[in-house]
């Protein structure tokens, strides 16, 4: 399928805000990608001016939540090259989410071409300062107007992009997290491993509780025993226990992060022992007390690495080491960001350069 390109008129191009004015998720570039699934096939892939979607009020996504998304970034290197980081991982995960939600798959190569066409046309929207980037949000929604629970027969796949600022403009900042032992995010056998909209709606209540108590993110426990650590906010979670890197296994209720996989690959490459095994909250609290737990950090595309400085559990607060950024957190951050911006060697072939 050929992607048709319909650029906005030059006088309708909007100015891009200065890099230090960028707020995550508020500003969108001039163009979007869209294609429609009708009569059993994807039709009319096209790059068009950014603008509202017209949806029937009975569109199934608005009632039954049949919708999924992805998140990745385009990075501008000092020499002007544009990098994507392991984009096919996102395209594959998109299709895994799609299958779990009974939606029609999108050809991974076409999906990548769509992103490249979009990035090429809106290349001026990619910020120039290191740490800032162009966030890319592929989405699929059920658009068929129909009331009644079953998979829809019509869908829209669209991609929007927008410039985002550096996650740590004032330097690497450890976050405070709140262990939710009452509300859960996902249960094994449910949809926790899909990047589907319902998971984020399900997370809001606990996140608001945490915020009211002064905590930035929720540490999610497993839904059955409320004992095993699963994720932190919308990030995967890692622990440095003595000199081993430990992260919960992908058991079905955890989102398989691209950053998670990259941290595991890097650790192995560096000769760090990695253990994907269940971690109980008691082990975390005991480890903080004994000093065996040296670092906690979250991983995800938005922040790359998010060090955790404090954990709140059952009405008590525990400071991890002295609340400062750990050595491994910094090392993973520097390496991954260095590879993304072309400043460090890429021995894994993670970088996909966009042809401009
Ligand atoms: C997207 C996401 C992640 C991180 O995935 P990355 O591919 O590393 O960005 C982790 N947990 C949840 C719940 C997510 O939605």
UniProtKB/TrEMBL annotation:
EC number of this enzyme: 2.6.1.42
Catalyzed reactions per annotation: L-leucine + 2-oxoglutarate = 4-methyl-2-oxopentanoate + L-glutamate; L-isoleucine + 2-oxoglutarate = (S)-3-methyl-2-oxopentanoate + L-glutamate; L-valine + 2-oxoglutarate = 3-methyl-2-oxobutanoate + L-glutamate
GO terms (BP aspect): isoleucine biosynthetic process; L-leucine biosynthetic process; L-valine biosynthetic process
Entry-annotated residues carrying N6-(pyridoxal phosphate)lysine: 195
Cofactors: pyridoxal 5'-phosphate
InterPro entries hit by this protein: Aminotrans_IV, Aminotrans_IV_CS, Aminotransferase-like, B_amino_transII, BCAT-like_C, BCAT-like_N, BCAT_family
GO molecular function: L-isoleucine-2-oxoglutarate transaminase activity; L-leucine-2-oxoglutarate transaminase activity; L-valine-2-oxoglutarate transaminase activity
Pathway annotation: Amino-acid biosynthesis; L-isoleucine biosynthesis; L-isoleucine from 2-oxobutanoate: step 4/4; Amino-acid biosynthesis; L-valine biosynthesis; L-valine from pyruvate: step 4/4; Amino-acid biosynthesis; L-leucine biosynthesis; L-leucine from 3-methyl-2-oxobutanoate: step 4/4
Keywords of the record: Amino-acid biosynthesis, Aminotransferase, Branched-chain amino acid biosynthesis, Pyridoxal phosphate, Transferase
Matching Gene3D superfamilies: 3.30.470.10, D-amino Acid Aminotransferase, subunit A, domain 2 (3.20.10.10)
One Pfam family recorded for the sequence: Aminotran_4
Xref: NCBIfam families: ilvE_II, PRK13357.1
Family: Belongs to the class-IV pyridoxal-phosphate-dependent aminotransferase family.
Function per UniProt: Acts on leucine, isoleucine and valine.
Protein's name in the database: Branched-chain-amino-acid aminotransferase
UniProt organism field: Desulfacinum infernum DSM 9756
